[in-house]
Design a protein that fits this description.
This protein has 18 helices and 19 strands. With 493 residues, the chain is of the alpha/beta class. Helix 6 links the parallel strand 6 and strand 7.
Length: 493
């Protein structure tokens, strides 16, 4: 399972002829669903990963956002991280909050596989904790994510009590070579540069360091090298390097029990947020990732054996192009960043308070006030969404993002869900995602490997179909109440 954070299908159309590695192989040899999307309203990283691995919508798996509010009588609304868990610790660093899948309320593909064959190994790695934890579901396998504070891949006591020798070996022997990568230089062919926006734009990055080359000496802080590297394409290279180390050390794919490896690659999201999807930084990142994935697939051919492994690739969400670069195909004609006046108007209706009224009358009043703002397209009370037929498809998406007791936004704390107009951004720089619009929901979905029928497929597909499709490929039984279905075009009964 490969999840590329913030990967847009539009990249394959715009830059496809430049790909020579993993993306090229996937497009040529894989089953490519060109009409796939997340079918929920809150398009954030944790939500997308959870939907991909469980086969159900957020209203059932419970991961409604990257962070959400939970109400307690004593403290009021308390912010909760999607994988944060105070009952466990990060191994080797008790100062960091613990991490586990305790908030994931449904089983996932890894759980189903482990139940079918206890010999199956479950391994997962990512640059982000949620990208590693949620795809592994509840299995206490080998689950690691990169900590820039510690300069290594870490895990928590939910999974084990100490690091295995192979993980320590990677830290001591493999990681130090990346200390030489203190300059991020543009490797994009000169002929392709015209396909991107200009190298320098006032909305990019920190507004100062917006052009290549990006140097740690200029943009980093003393002693914070790994923080800087985690803002560059190099962290994905480190992640894939660690994934190779896992395959070798854990002997994945070497016997007749199927093993599960998740690799969640985070840097498209970090670079996209800072520079925008049309930037030169993002194209350089894409081309590097294409080559790195190609090398990883070749490694699997050599180590596991050609025809003995399969890969399924998708993304946790899409993204809006920076408003300054609109219009772009498939996106709104224009967008705009929230002004100070708009922010003030929104805070008047939704002040940041720990204790807010949640009764039906108060919710209706908030919804009415929100709909009066020119940058709000619609607002619904939770009562409206939970009772009766949804008014439209956006209401359906909003309903699927609701989970009792977990509030994904300030409006949610007041019993209301809100849809802002297309192209509206809260961020003053870069760009973002999180809306129910197609540009945030549309993601690639590609399956490649033995037993998978290659070709482009325009069948409507949803990310909740991802896990049940892999389960069918593995001949693993799934829960009978999934929202998704096995895609027949990938593997037939």
């Amino acid at each position: 399972m490969v999840v590329v954070d913030q990967l847009r299908p539009a990249y394959f159309d715009r830059y496809g002829d430049l790909f020579t590695g993993g993306f090229r192989r996937l497009l040529d040899q894989g089953r490519v669903y060109v009409n796939a999307s997340h079918d929920h309203a809150v398009t954030e990283t944790a939500v997308g990963h959870a939907s991909l691995t469980t086969g159900v919508h957020p209203m059932r798996h419970g991961i409604v956002a990257n962070e959400w509010g939970e109400y307690t009588p004593a403290a009021g609304w308390v912010e909760v991280s999607n994988v944060g868990d105070s009952t466990v610790k990060i191994i080797g660093d008790s100062t960091q909050r613990g991490v586990s899948p305790h908030a994931l309320m449904r089983s996932g593909l890894a759980d189903w596989l482990s139940a079918a064959d206890p010999r199956s190994r479950i391994a997962s790695v990512s640059g982000k904790d949620r990208g590693a934890v949620l795809p592994a579901a509840h299995v206490k396998g080998d689950v690691y994510w990169f900590s820039s504070g510690r300069g290594r891949f870490v895990t928590s006591t939910y999974y084990r009590e100490q690091y295995p020798d192979w993980a320590n070996e990677f830290t001591s022997r493999a990681l130090p070579k990346y200390l030489r990568d203190s300059v991020w230089a543009n490797q994009t062919p000169a002929a392709a540069l015209a396909r991107t926006t200009a190298d320098s734009a006032p909305y990019e990055g920190d507004g100062t360091h917006t052009t290549f080359p990006h140097r740690f000496a200029d943009e980093g802080r003393p002693g914070r090298f790994w923080d800087w590297l985690a803002s560059t394409p190099m962290l994905d290279a480190v992640t894939l390097d660690f994934a190779e180390h896992m395959v070798r050390s854990l002997q994945l794919g070497r016997d007749d029990a199927p093993d599960f490896l998740n690799v969640s690659l985070s840097q498209m999201d970090r670079i996209g947020h800072s520079y925008g999807p049309m930037s030169r930084e993002q194209l350089d990142n894409l081309l590097r990732l294409d080559r790195a994935l190609g090398e990883f697939f070749s490694f699997l051919d050599q180590t596991v054996g050609a025809g003995r492994w399969a890969v399924a690739l998708s993304a946790d969400h899409g993204v809006l192009s920076a408003p300054e670069t609109l219009p772009q195909p498939g996106e709104p004609a224009r967008g705009h960043r929230m002004t100070a006046a708009e922010g003030a108007a929104l805070r008047t209706i939704l002040p940041d308070e720990k204790r807010v009224p949640t009764n039906v009358e108060a919710a209706a009043s908030v919804a009415t006030a929100l709909k009066g703002l020119p940058f709000v397209a619609d607002a619904w009370t939770h009562e409206q969404l939970l009772r009766g037929a949804p008014a439209d498809s956006f209401a359906v998406l909003a309903r699927r993002s609701l989970y009792p007791g977990r509030a994904a936004s300030e409006a949610s704390k007041r019993g209301v869900e809100v849809r802002f107009v297309e192209g509206f951004l809260f961020s003053a720089r870069g760009t973002s995602h999180g809306t129910p619009y197609w540009y945030d929901r549309h993601v690639p979905m590609i399956f490649m490997g033995a037993g998978i029928q290659a070709g482009r497929d325009s069948t409507r597909a949803a990310t909740v179909d991802f896990a049940p499709t892999l389960a069918r490929l593995l001949r693993v039984q799934t829960p009978g109440d999934l929202d998704g279905r096995a895609l027949v075009g990938v593997v037939r009964r």
